[in-house]
Write a structure and sequence with these properties.
The relative contact order is 0.10. This protein has 20 helices and 8 strands. It has 3 domains: 195 residues, 2-Layer Sandwich (Nucleotidyltransferase, domain 5), CATH 3.30.420.10; 93 residues, HRDC domain (DNA polymerase, domain 1); 83 residues, HRDC domain (DNA polymerase, domain 1). It has a 6-stranded mixed β-sheet with strand order 2-5-4-3-6-7. It has a two-stranded parallel ribbon with strand order 1-8. One of its GO terms (biological process) is nucleobase-containing compound metabolic process. This is Ribonuclease D. It comes from Solihabitans fulvus.
Length: 410
């Protein structure tokens, strides 16, 4: 499968025009059932794709719920919905959007919290993913809008605490701008993908994102604590695990981001220092603060539970891997696998450059590693294609990479 044009079109025209507010102004926030029914009726009576975005409070809250939903459709204008004020009841909106195409930027970030509200697209166009497949090196929304549409978006509140009420006017202005030009950007990117012969690739990717199952819970998520790589003592690892699990329970109960309950650095320091009393724990820098002083007994109890574990109950220093070992160990463990991976990576890098598609979008790196570590018994083109398909690769990815991978595996 050859793309007739692998390079994205160069921008033309004057310098970008600053876009500081929506053309129609910022609409009032929909926060009661009557307003929701009116907004849903307007969206249902309009035409064309629907631009959709959400605002969360990831750095502030434990949950990943949506605290604002933004929508825009030609003929209906922009709608800002407060799902919290509505108690999560968005049935009129669900009905109004049924069967429509949704346009999102980085859809995989927003779809889970939209699904919690009963909102699921029938068809999807992801402008970030489209930008990647079209070969643009920088695919942030503001960057693509500036390059392809000639406008510079007002930015600056994406990491704000969107659980705050009432929401400030400048935040709502920012939120409305995120969907102001999304459909126009979609149209330009669709034309660019068509020009490059990649539209079918993109449609397959969009559908895979739309139908992707929820991510599975991580095995031993406490091992992702920042700085844990410095700890090689099983008893200290048990202390980190106990503090992490205690912190997670507190954060979930209070709906506060775990890092705001207790920083990772504080857990690592407490685990390595091994305080025996409340006084010892309060002597550590982070634990001197007012919030930690109130919870000092909670943290000390967590440390005591870890200290009382039997040897068989302690965690392993080496983390169990679901799949191949780290690549830097392949040369010692299986030189043939290391050679296969090196050849595969070289071939994929060449295809990436040839088609102006990021190598990670050609095939998931994890799938490449797994296939090279444990190849299928049949390393013919057909056998490798079957293995890739079983691993979740899309048709366009298989057609593009199977020949190179079968040679690398052979």
């Amino acid at each position: 499968m050859e793309a007739p044009c692998a390079e994205p079109a160069e921008p033309t025209g004057p310098d970008p025009v600053p876009l500081t507010e929506p053309a129609d102004g910022v609409p009032p926030v929909v926060a009661d059932p009557s307003a929701l029914r009116q907004a849903a009726a307007a969206l249902a009576g309009a035409a064309g794709p629907v631009a959709v975005d959400t605002e969360r409070a990831s750095g502030y809250r434990y949950s990943q719920r949506a605290y604002l939903v933004q929508l825009r459709r030609e003929g209906a204008g922009t709608v800002l919905v407060d799902p919290v004020a509505l108690g999560g009841w968005l049935d009129p909106l669900v009905e109004a959007l049924a069967g429509t195409e949704w346009v999102l930027h980085a859809a995989s970030q927003d779809l889970p919290c939209l699904a919690e509200l009963g909102l699921r697209p029938s068809t999807l166009f992801d402008t970030e993913l489209a930008g990647r497949l079209a070969g643009f090196e920088r695919v942030a929304l503001g960057t693509l809008v500036e390059r392809l549409l000639g406008y510079r978006l007002e930015k600056g509140h994406g990491a704000a605490d969107w659980s705050r009420r009432p929401l400030p006017a400048d935040w709502l202005n920012y939120a409305a701008l995120d969907v102001e030009l999304l459909v126009e950007l979609r149209d330009v990117l669709e034309a660019e993908l068509t020009r490059q012969g990649k539209l079918e690739w993109a449609l397959e990717e969009f559908e895979a994102v739309r139908l992707a199952p929820p991510p599975r819970p991580r095995h031993e998520p406490w091992r992702r604590t920042s700085g844990i790589h410095r700890i090689r003592n099983p008893r200290q690892l048990a202390a980190v695990r106990s503090l992490w699990e205690t912190r997670d329970a507190v954060a979930q109960e209070r709906d506060i981001a775990p890092g705001r309950v207790l920083p990772d650095s504080a857990m690592i320091e407490a685990a390595t220092r091994g305080p025996q009393t409340e006084g010892d724990l309060l002597a550590l820098p982070v634990f001197r603060g007012r919030a930690q002083r109130r919870m000092v007994s909670v943290w000390l109890d967590a440390l005591k539970r870890a200290a009382e574990l039997t040897k068989s109950e302690l965690p392993d220093v080496g983390q169990a891997h679901d799949g191949p070992p780290p690549v830097n160990r392949w040369g010692d463990k299986d030189p043939d696998a290391a050679a296969r991976l090196a050849k595969a990576r070289t071939a994929l890098a060449e295809l990436s450059e040839q088609h102006a598609v990021p190598v990670e979008n050609l095939l998931l790196p994890d799938l490449v590693r797994r296939t090279c570590w444990q190849p299928p018994e049949d390393v013919s083109r057909e056998g490798v294609a079957a293995a890739l398909r079983e691993g979740g690769a899309r048709n366009w990815q298989i057609e593009l990479t199977v020949e190179a991978l079968s040679k690398a595996l052979a």
